[in-house]
Structures are given as structure tokens and as C-alpha cells.
Amino acid sequence: MSYNCVFVIGPTAVGKTAIGVRLADTFDGEIISADSRQVYKGLDIGTGKDLADYDFVGSDGKKRHIPYHIIDVCDLSKEYNLFDFQEDFYKAFSDISARGKLPICVGGTGMYVDSILRSYDMIEVPENPEEKAALEAKSYDELKSILIEEKEKLHNTTEFGDKDRIIKAILINRFSKTAEYAELKRKMQESRPKIEPLVICTTLDRKLVRSRIAARLRARMGEGLIEEIDGLHKAGWSFERLESLGLEYRFVSLYLQGEYGEVGSDCAREKLFELLNRAIGQFAKRQETWFRGMEKKGVKIHWLPEEMDVEKRFEAAKDLLLDRR
Known about the structure:
Blueprint: E1 5-9, H1 16-26, E2 29-33, E3 55-57, E4 63-65, E5 68-69, H2 82-98, E6 102-107, H3 110-117, H4 129-136, H5 140-150, H6 163-175, H7 179-191, E7 197-201, H8 206-223, H9 225-234, H10 239-243, H11 247-256, H12 266-296, E8 301-303, H13 310-323
Parallel strand pairs: 1-6, 1-7, 2-5, 2-6, 7-8
Antiparallel strand pairs: 3-4
Helix pairs in contact: 1-13, 2-3, 4-6, 5-6, 8-12, 9-11, 11-12
């Protein structure tokens, strides 16, 4: 074949998982998730894991289970990052391929996807307690200034998330300029499996995406989104940690702290819905912009027709795979 793995990417709420699972069933594949929050145990409703989607009844009436990877791999005590994803992706890819299966990567975290398609160099930084301690003594604003000054180009402003994240970014940037880093990079590139991807992106008309986001958010709130996040806080995770996860976890954490009015009141819940719905819509727009930006940087992307019907988009994706066998 002209490819040894498939990527199904796109903004949130457009049916990526449904298409990826159907492709895995048709082409004897397994799913590798590229979602920066589905890696965490306990983050289920807010991240839309929908694990039931991996178990379904096929057209022949038989039950199917599609294996998946890089979902529920750690708890919130770990700050899962791009380095972790790359490492886990290559392990999963090699494992799936060695068993004669087709790896199908499904997700909307643009940087995760891009890190594989454009082969980011992610090398673990050796411990330097003294340097780290010196940085920890500085303020958030001082650390931000250091990172801006020392790093020529920031991959993503999420590096400004909190002090720990900024310190990590500074240490990585400094290490990347050493001879030790250059040698580790050479060895890493030699050891990586060769990725020959077929990249498929699916999206819908923007108004339809916003409508689907709103409907899905209503449903998730009805399914216990607020209760899930309240339970995580009561289990010992701070609101600060939950807010760092973004979107649903940030806005619901603010709601639970009374930022939108009396907790439990219809007014506060509606304010939560309004603000969160708008934020998810803006996020979906940024996702699509990221994927189109990848295209401009040389990633070959096959865009599926903007059909409402997932079945029609699956058929279009299936034809792409068959044409390139």
C-alpha cells in the first residue's frame, strides 16, 4: 500500500470517531487516539470518550470491538504532554503494525497530530535540580519573559499555562541547543518507525458544527458533566488543576466556585452553558485553522465532502483507502 497508517482528523463534534471506528472495522485496524484530555482516567463525559462507540453490531449482525490506544493511560497527578504522546504513539504504531493490523489515528488535538506527521524532535530533558530550583524562585511574569526572550518561536501559547509548564518549556529550549541534544536527536530519528500516512480530514458547515456542539453540550450536561467535575474535585483534585485542562473542566470549575451565580440555580447553569458553548465553538474554529495551516506547511490532507450523513463520509473515506492500496 502507499500508506502504513491512516489519520482521521477534524474539529470537535463532526463524527471523527464514528468514521475512524468504521474504517478500523473495514480494514482490520485499531484506533490510536490523538486527544490531549482523553489520556486521563476519570475525564469521561467532559472529553467525550464515548467508549461505547468502540463496541457495535456490524452489518452482519455480529458484535464487534475495535481496540483503542492512548486513552485512560494516566491520572491527573501526571501532566501528560507532547513528549509523552509521541512516545506512546510510536509504541502503539509499532505494536499494531507488528500484528498485521492497520493503525488509524483519530483525534482533534492539532499539535499531537502535527508532531507525528511532521516528525517533531521531542527529546527528554535530563534532570538539573539547581537550574530548575533557580527558575522556580522566579515569578510567573519573569518566567514568561525568559521564555519569550530565549525561544525564537513558540509552538503554542499553551506553554504559558502555569509556572510548571513554563519552566519545563525553558529547560527544554535550553537543552535543545546543546551537543548532547544533537546526538540524542540523531539516535532518536534512526530508531523511529517510518510513518507513511494517509491523512483524512472531516468537517461540516460552520453553522452546523456550532449547532452540533450546542446539542452535544446540552446532552452532556444532562448526562452528568457538572457532577463528574464536582466528583473529581471532591476526590482531591484542585480547581486549579481542573481549570488547567481547559474548556469543560475550566468553565464547570468556575461554575462550581460560584463565578456564574448561585451553584445549582437555573440562571447559573444557563450562564455556564452560554459561555462554554461559545468557547467550544471558538475552539472548533481554531482546530480547523490549525489543520489548514498544516496543509500549507506541506502535509497532504484529503478533505471529505461536507455531508451531514456520517455514512456518506465514511464511504468517501473508504474509497480513499481502497484507491491507494
